[in-house]
Amino acid sequence: MDRRSFLKNAGLAGTGGATLLAAPAVAQERKEFTIVSSFPRDFPGLGMSAQRLSKRITELSNGRLQATYYAAGERVGAFDVFDEVASGNAQAYISADYYWVGKDPAFAYFTSVPFGMTMPEWNAWIKFKGGQELWDKVSGNFDLKALPCGGTGTQMGGWFNVEIESVDDLKGLKMRIPGLGSFVMSKLGVSVVSLPGGQIYENLVSGAIDAAEWVGPYNDYFMKFYEAAKYYYMAGMHEPGGGNSFGMNKVWWTSLTEWERTVIEAACMEENAAMNEEFLANNGIYLKKLVEDHGTQLRQFNEETWDAFGEAAIEVIEENRGQSALTAEIHDHYRAALTELGQFRKGAEITYSNQRNRVLGL
Question: Average pLDDT, whole number, for the chain?
Fold first, then answer.
């Protein structure tokens, strides 16, 4: 089916006004498939987004694609979803692809990299500047096909049980932080710990770790990190975007009809926007609750610390770039797009928002 035929046959269904994709005239049998996730069930933000996407695929397909969803730990562990899908034991995962940098360092670019793209910039790169094609290359090496399916926006710098008044205060801290941001912190003397989201609280409360980053106020509030750490730093350098991935077994993906693939693409695109908008809508509300109801003390890293982050990040990214020819190709493409997008946004959107906030006293 070509795109014009598809658009011609698309329609509206239901009184709620939800746009549904018209099924092909010839009925085909229902296909059941399994989605595994790295995020907790019913968890505001990340967890609810994953559940919403799974339900939406079934809804948009008029029941043709029947998704069974498993949250982190219900079928496999949070960090085991990649292997579960690559092996064909499940058909799709919802996660963050920077968890897989140990398998290929190029995966970092398809979630977030330190001092990298913000969410609007990353989406522009993925959708319109060749990022998806590069993602297909690295995912394809593991028999996977990935699509963007959500984003948190710029994340907070993390929760600390001590104030960070200089970069020296980081030395010796045990901190939960994933992705290339963990390598940056390591260079600055932090002892990095890898933990899934569901295990951060218990480790922070027990003192097994001294600091942790998770996402932002909307998610962090429900994790109750304020019970274990007093200082909340905004913002972080490690995840300026925070994109999520709907990763599929490539054999399964190619077995689908064009209409079925279009349904999945449409659901992912819808949730990719919705999740980011949900975080933006709620972060301010829950930041206020953290401060006013729980005594959280907001802090910002000083410029000396930011400079140290920057120097370490440049080293880490160059080291990562040198890991393989494909990583170098993706990095160079990403960096060129970031320069172009960043320069325009600096002169337009960032100038405007800074002046707006100054004039309105925000």
Answer: 92
Does residue 361 surpass a pLDDT of 60?
Answer: yes
Domains of the chain by range and CATH?
3-21+28-151+242-280 (3.40.190.170)
Output the CA torsion sign for 316, 318, 321, 325.
Answer: negative
CA distance 306 to 313: 10
- Cβ neighbours of 314 (radius 10 Å): 13
Token reading at 67 = 């998704």
Q: How many helices (H) and strands (E) does the chain have?
A: 13, 13
Q: Which helix (H) or strand (E) is 176 found in, with range?
A: strand 174-176
Which run of H or E residues covers position 343? helix 325-345
CA dist., res. 86 & res. 333, Å (int) = 26
Burial class (CB in 10 A: 0-12, 13-18, 19+), 282: middle
Average pLDDT over residues 146-166: 96
Which residue(s) pair with 176 in the sheet? 193, 212
Q: Are 260 and 91 in contact (CB under 8 A)?
A: no
- Residue pair 150/272 in contact by the 8 Å Cβ criterion: yes
User: What predicted TM-score, i.e. pTM, was given to this entire model?
Assistant: 0.90
CB neighbourhood size of 67 (10 A) = 22
Predicted confidence (pLDDT) at residue 25 exceeds the cutoff of 90: no
Please report the sign of the dihedral spanned by the C-alpha atoms of residue 71, residue 286, residue 156, residue 133: positive
296 Cα distance to chain centroid: 25
One DSSP character per residue, 59-91 reads HHTTTSEEEEEE-TTTSS-GGGHHHHHHTTSSS
| pLDDT tens sequence across 58-91 | 999 999 999 999 999 999 999 999 999 999 999 9
Q: Which of 75, 87, 2 is nearest to 35 (CA)?
A: 75
Backbone angles phi, psi at 65, to 5 degrees: -105, 105
325 burial level (CB within 10 Å; 0-12, 13-18, 19+): exposed
| Rounded CA separation 211/152 (Å) | 20
Query: Would you tell me how many other CB atoms lie within 10 Å of the CB of residue 181?
Result: 29
**Whether residue 4 has pLDDT greater than 70:** no
